[in-house]
Amino acid sequence: MSASTPETNVIQYRAAEQLLAARDPMGAVKLLENVVADHPENTAARLLRARAFFHSAQLRPAELEFRLVLDREPDNAYAHFALGRTLQRADRPSEATRHFRLAAALDPRPDFVAAAGFGSGGTGADGA
C-alpha cells in the first residue's frame, strides 16, 4: 500500500483525467496505481484506469477493469459499451455485441444504439 493521503488521491485522479484527455494513457495508468491501491472499491478510478488501458491498447487489463466495474455496477451502460469496444478490438465480436446491446438497452444513446446494430446512424466509433 502507498502512503497517499485522500487529497493526494484526488489530485492524482484529476491529473490522470487530464493525461487521458491529453492522449497520455500510460501516464494516466501510472497515476492511478496509488489511487486504486488505496481505494480498490472506487469504481470511478477503476473505470478511468480501464479507459486508460484501452487507449494504450492494453486490452486484457482494460477488459478486467471494465468487468470489475460491471460486477459492482451491472447497470453501468458506459462500462458495457466500453467493454464491448474492448472485446471488439480483441476480435471477439459476439461477446462485444452482447455488451453493446446491454449498453443500448440501459441507455439508448445514439452511439450505443448504433454499436448494438439497432440504429441506422454512424458506427459510434469514437472509442471508449
Main sheet specs: none
Strand percentage lies at under 5%
pLDDT averaged residue by residue = 92
Distance between the termini: 29 Å
For the CA atoms, what is the radius of gyration? 15 Å
TPR repeats: 77-110
Pfam families: TPR_19
Organism: Streptomyces lycii
Keywords: TPR repeat
Question: Describe it for me?
Answer:
This protein is an all-alpha fold and 128 residues long. The radius of gyration is 15 Å and the shape is elongated. 71% of the residues lie in helices and 0% in strands. The chain starts with 5 loop residues before the first helix and ends in a 12-residue tail after the last helix. The chain folds into two domains: 57 residues; 45 residues, no CATH class.
